[in-house]
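Box 4.2: Ligand-aware structure prediction
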Amino acid sequence: MAQVAISKVAKAFGTVKVLHEVSVDIADGQFVVLVGPSGCGKSTLLRMVAGLETVSGGTIAIGDRVVNHLPPAKRDIAMVFQNYALYPHKTVEQNMAFALKLRKTDPALVAERVKRAADILDLNPYLKRYPRQLSGGQRQRVAMGRAIVRNPQVFLFDEPLSNLDAKLRVQMRTEIKELHQRLKTTTIYVTHDQIEAMTMADKIVVMRDGRIEQIGAPLELFDRPANLFVAGFIGSPS
Ligand code: ADP
Ligand code: MG
C-alpha cells in the first residue's frame, strides 16, 4: 500500500485551475521529487499534502487515512520550507523543541529527540545560538532538525536549497540524501532544478502547467522520456 496516495487531485483558485486531476503513489520510505518549471503547481500540490491548502477535487491519503479534511497538525507530516521559517527569538535548541512543546510532549522525550537531531545534523556546537548567528547551511540544518524531532511518517521539502550558494547546495543535497538513507522516512521533495531531481530521487514526477508529464526513476526518464518536454527538461543543464 502507498504511504502517500494522491488520487485525481485537482486545485482551483477561484475560477483558475492550477492542478488537473494529478495522481501519484508514494511507497513507504521512497524519496520522490516533484520537478517542473516555476508556476507548474509543485508547491500547491505539496501544500495540499501538508494541509496548508484545501483540495478542490480528488483525495489525498497518508497511511490508511484520507486526510483531505484533517488540519496540518493531525497529518503526521513535517515540512521544510525554502525560507527556513525559523523563530528569530528562539535558540537553535528552542526552535527544534518548539513543535513538540506545543504538543505537550514529555520534557524528557523532547530533550532526547532534540539531542538525536543535533547529533544527526552536527548541530551540537550551535544549540544556544540564534538563527541570525548561523550561516545559511546551518539554518537549513536547523529547519531539518525541526522536522526530524517530530518523527513524522512523511517529510515534505519545498525547494529547501534554493537560497543557498551553488557549492553549499551540492553539499546539502548529499546531506539530505544521507539523512534519508539513515531515517528512511518517506519524502516528497519539490524543486525546479533537474540536477537535484536526477541526483536525489528514487522516483521523479515531472510536472507542467498543472499536469503530470511523466513519472519514473531518474534513468528511466533519461533513457525513455515520454515526450519532448521531458527530454528537454531532464536533458538541459541547470
Ligand atoms: P510552483 O511551486 O510549481 O512554482 P505554485 O504551486 O506555487 O507553482 O503555483 C501554481 C499556480 O498557482 C501559479 O500559476 C500560481 O500563480 C498559482 N497560485 C498559487 N498560489 C495561489 C493563490 N494562493 N492564489 C491564486 N493563485 C495561486
Ligand atoms: Mg513553488
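In the box above, the bound molecule is magnesium ion. The first helix runs from residue 42 to 50.
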